[in-house]
């Protein structure tokens, strides 16, 4: 029986880990959504980067006018890159944090604030809202990840 | 003995987790390969971005002609960024999925299709193949990750 | 009692995993630091990309002169992207490696060399040092991750 209890699925029975899994799946899906938004803007703004992407509807000189940058497309690409820069640390440090034995309520607070802040960041960037809307939402997510990293290093430090 | 079975190496005895580890290592190595392909194109096309990178073989005005963008280099860099955008969610969501207790055969199907789709995507982007070759291979990898995220959220949802 | 030992916190009692957690938190914090360095250079060089970022201190034509690229800002952004390209594989493959039962001393050697190499890479890129300083520090980190991937695939291969 001890073998059975030691199966890998045990992690998924831990409430903190389930909360981590839930919010990690949500923020990664939010990040993935940026690919679809980029595609939407590329198609509606007719702004592509690869010659093979315009070959089906334009040839020669007329193709070239669709190979261009567009302000809205570039904005969405910046959101996507900013997500990578911020969600990757959350996913990595958050996993270690979830395994470091935090209080469930504290962990939920971290995960919920981060997720809310990143959704606000995307909206503030996309609309766009006047600053410091985007800056603050970015800083809140950053501070949450730094707080988790502090807890991880305090708990496990083994340099 | 129960303590021994509970060691962290147990995860690595779980078949689904071993499959996850295998395919994650493969797709991350594939992504890392793009760094070498970028370096190869930068050197063969003589297209660099940092002044210190050309200082050993060109000075002053002649150095400037090597500080330029090149269509092939930019193409490889787009593949690399697309890998980051798609392989990061696979690695994060795939870990949670592997821990959520899926059927081994279902998990293998997800991991194999994703890995095959990303290899096809790289080839379609690099050659390049006519569309929708690249678009379809991208969409298949995206759908696999979304399917794993759905299973994770259905299994662990703890918001 | 076996149930207690099987709790998820067990991973965090494993010395190799604690070492992994320590160095992963450090390199992810180092990567996050690049966001602050980018912000610092954007503000001191007055080089922004979003119109809403300059709206508080410049209007109309005078705003346009702050919407520009700056060599130092672009350099920091390249460091940040290079971190993503290299630290993401380290975090993913390193986790699998830590779970694959390596010797503690071997694991520490991998984690310490990678972390040192990435810190050197950032310094070499930022100062910048003459090549091959940056190239070598990049290659060392790359080789460490490849070595861990080899160990993972040798241990768990389940294709």
TrEMBL record, chains A, B, C:
<dbReference type="InterPro" id="IPR001129">
    <property type="entry name" value="Membr-assoc_MAPEG"/>
</dbReference>
<dbReference type="GO" id="GO:0004364">
    <property type="term" value="F:glutathione transferase activity"/>
</dbReference>
<keyword id="KW-1000">Mitochondrion outer membrane</keyword>
<protein>
    <recommendedName>
        <fullName>Microsomal glutathione S-transferase 1</fullName>
        <ecNumber>2.5.1.18</ecNumber>
    </recommendedName>
</protein>
<dbReference type="GO" id="GO:0005741">
    <property type="term" value="C:mitochondrial outer membrane"/>
</dbReference>
<keyword id="KW-0007">Acetylation</keyword>
<keyword id="KW-0256">Endoplasmic reticulum</keyword>
<keyword id="KW-0808">Transferase</keyword>
<keyword id="KW-0472">Membrane</keyword>
<dbReference type="GO" id="GO:0005789">
    <property type="term" value="C:endoplasmic reticulum membrane"/>
</dbReference>
<keyword id="KW-1133">Transmembrane helix</keyword>
<dbReference type="InterPro" id="IPR023352">
    <property type="entry name" value="MAPEG-like_dom_sf"/>
</dbReference>
<feature type="transmembrane region" description="Helical">
    <location>
        <begin position="20"/>
        <end position="41"/>
    </location>
</feature>
<dbReference type="InterPro" id="IPR040162">
    <property type="entry name" value="MGST1-like"/>
</dbReference>
<comment type="similarity">
    <text>Belongs to the MAPEG family.</text>
</comment>
<keyword id="KW-0496">Mitochondrion</keyword>
<comment type="subunit">
    <text>Homotrimer; The trimer binds only one molecule of glutathione.</text>
</comment>
<keyword id="KW-0812">Transmembrane</keyword>
<dbReference type="Pfam" id="PF01124">
    <property type="entry name" value="MAPEG"/>
</dbReference>
<comment type="function">
    <text>Conjugation of reduced glutathione to a wide number of exogenous and endogenous hydrophobic electrophiles.</text>
</comment>
